[in-house]
Write a structure and sequence with these properties.
With about 150 residues, the chain is of the alpha+beta class. It has two domains: about 60 residues, Ribosomal protein L9, N-terminal domain (Ribosomal Protein L9, domain 1); about 80 residues, Ribosomal protein L9, C-terminal domain (Ribosomal Protein L9, domain 2), CATH 3.10.430. It has a four-stranded mixed beta sheet. It has a three-stranded antiparallel beta sheet with strand order 2-1-3, covered by helices on one side. A two-stranded antiparallel ribbon has the order 5-7. A hairpin with a 2-residue loop joins strand 8 and strand 9.
Length: about 150
């Protein structure tokens, strides 16, 4: 029987593919998990609508990420940390600290999206890259000051 896949299925095909499978495999595995449905004209039309909604949602998320990138491109974030006389920090400033400083300024950015090669260990300004979306990146200036 021919089915249309609603999700990627390892060893069978990718989302949107029309593939032939046995009725038992469809009835016992694919259908109960919502991975596929029969390739009838009505189901194909329903899949196309679902795919169009997903594309619109993805485009909206990219637009929101680009808007956020424009708003924060000139942002200066201040982080306070304890430091010695030689301007070396006691410890370091990591993504979690930067995320907290951004949150204090009203920007909710997950610490996983802060790209830091290594933790900051010196006072002063630093350029930090943010991954707002897989297609959108932004840079923020982080100034580490003595606490």
């Amino acid at each position: 029987m021919e089915v249309i896949l609603f999700a990627d299925v390892k060893g069978l095909g990718r989302q949107g593919d029309r593939v032939k499978v046995s009725e038992g495999y469809f009835r016992n595995f694919l259908k109960p998990r919502g991975l596929a449905d029969e390739a009838t004209p009505a189901n194909i039309k329903r899949f196309e609508k679902m795919k169009q909604k997903q594309l619109e949602l993805a485009a909206q998320k990219v637009a929101e990420a680009r808007d956020l990138a424009k708003r924060i491109q000139d942002l200066v974030v201040t982080v306070k940390a304890k430091a010695g006389e030689s301007e070396k920090l006691f410890g370091s400033v990591g993504p979690a600290d930067i995320a907290e400083a951004l949150k204090a300024q009203g920007y909710l950015i997950d610490k996983k999206n802060i790209e830091l090669d290594e933790p900051i260990k010196k006072l002063g300004p630093h350029e930090i890259a943010l991954r707002l979306h897989p297609e959108v990146r932004a840079k923020v200036k982080v100034v580490v000051e003595r606490a």
